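seq:
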Amino acid sequence: MMIAISPKATLYERDFNLWLEDTIAKLKAGDFQNIDIENLIEEIAGVTGSDKREIENRLQRLIEHILKRCYVSMPDCYRGWQVTIVNQRQKLVRLLRQSPSLKCHFLESFDEVFDDALKIVQIEYDVEFPDTWQFSRDIDSILNVDFWE
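struct:
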């Protein structure tokens, strides 16, 4: 009879929260030799990817609702679209205030995000939407201007 011995799971694999607390404690104590560097790098890289995805998701939702508000003639829906616009703008402002370097990603991803938003609203409404963004691409304008006025 053969007994398989499984490799001992690391703290990272056994208890992620405990691993985080342990890593923080080691960093604070300057115990750099005993830090699980590989997993720490992986987690930090994951955070930046998460923030970029959040920028893209919120920007797409914002663009969808700006397009609806500007081009879809449904006055009963205007208020709901404007609430979503304000909400997404507030969340984007907070995220960009916390991480100003993400402004570059905001601008770099704008065309792709616009194309994705346009596909959604074209399916949702039988309306002629412009194939390109018709307004200012300046971040301040996108986050503040009511383009429909």
